[in-house]
Amino acid sequence: MTSKDHTILADDDGPAAEVIHPRGTAPMCLVCEHASAFIPAKLMDLGVAPEHRHSHAAWDIGGRALAVALSEKLDAPLVASRVSRLVYDCNRPPSAPDAVPPRSEVVDVPGNQNLSDAARAARVAEVYEPFRTLLKTTLDSFKTPPILVTIHSFTPIWFGQPREVELGLLHDSDDRLARAMMSKRPDGLDARLNAPYSVTDGVTHTLREHAIPRGLQNVMIEVRNDLISDANGVARFADILSTMLTSALATQEAT
């Protein structure tokens, strides 16, 4: 399903990743690994059925909009992928089997099945490595060490089971920021630590790759996507999360 040399992105597809609000002055770097549902034409939709190409299987619904809103509100740069996670999941290392998923929940991805080593290597080279390099370069550009915040959304129904949690704050080995933010959660919001996923699900690669080795405080934010499916929901959670983040950081500075 690719050309003979296994290239993926055409010249007019643009880069695999971008920095939004690059001149933001806050000591904070936002990341959205699953910001796009774009599948390059060379991959012929990966054989995915039309109804699934913009579903939660292909990207984090509302994630990019929320990340952009937070970037503006917090005056922080945002590194975002421009390619669907069905092509390559930038929150997974190349060694992870689900970095190029042959199936996502109930969605089959024929174009990812039985890939040759060369075809898989092309996904890494054209999607993951540019994203990884851009994030590294962005972090290197800060004059003082920033905090790193990744923005995600999750489906309210997973394998037929409803999820009650509305906001998840996930961490890897460094739980400082996640716990500080939890202490600032608003009343009436079902917010939980390490839900609906945790480190055991292999979802903290970005934190582990880019934040922990640098000693940066970090957190992975997960918002249930039905709550950010429109502009009002995005604005509401941008307010909630910006307040939680700034309050948590202010409390840490005061102690």
Structural features, described:
This protein is of the alpha/beta class and 255 residues long. The strands form three sheets. It has a seven-stranded mixed beta sheet, sandwiched between helices. Strands 4-5 form a two-stranded antiparallel ribbon. Helix 1 crosses helix 5 (231-254). The protein has one domain: 3-Layer(aba) Sandwich (Aminopeptidase). It is built from five helices and eleven strands, in the order E-E-H-E-E-E-H-E-E-E-E-H-E-H-E-H. It has helices spanning 63-74, 117-140, 176-182, 205-211, 231-254; strands spanning 17-20, 28-32, 78-81, 103-104, 107-108, 147-154, 157-158, 161-162, 167-170, 191-193, 218-224. It is globular, with a radius of gyration of 18 Å. Helix 1 links the parallel strand 2 and strand 3 (78-81).
Describe the structure concisely.
29% of the residues lie in helices and 17% in strands. The chain has 255 residues and is of the alpha/beta class.
Show the helix and strand layout:
Layout: E1 17-20, E2 28-32, H1 63-74, E3 78-81, E4 103-104, E5 107-108, H2 117-140, E6 147-154, E7 157-158, E8 161-162, E9 167-170, H3 176-182, E10 191-193, H4 205-211, E11 218-224, H5 231-254
Number of structurally distinct domains = 1
The CATH superfamily is Zn-dependent exopeptidases
* CATH topology (fold) name: Aminopeptidase
The share of residues in extended strands comes to 15-25%
Question: Which ranges are low-confidence, i.e. pLDDT below 50, for 5 or more consecutive residues?
Answer: none
Separation of the first and last Cα atoms: 56 Å
Mean pLDDT: 95
**Which strand order do you get reading across the main beta sheet?**
1-3-2-6-11-9-10
Global Rg: 18 Å
Q: Count the strands? A: 11
Helix content: 25-40%
SSE string, helix = H, strand = E?
A: EEHEEEHEEEEHEHEH
Name of the CATH architecture: 3-Layer(aba) Sandwich
Instruction: Profile the largest sheet.
Output: 7 strands, mixed
Shape estimate: globular
Structural class: alpha/beta
Discrete helix count: 5
By CATH reckoning, the class would read: Alpha Beta
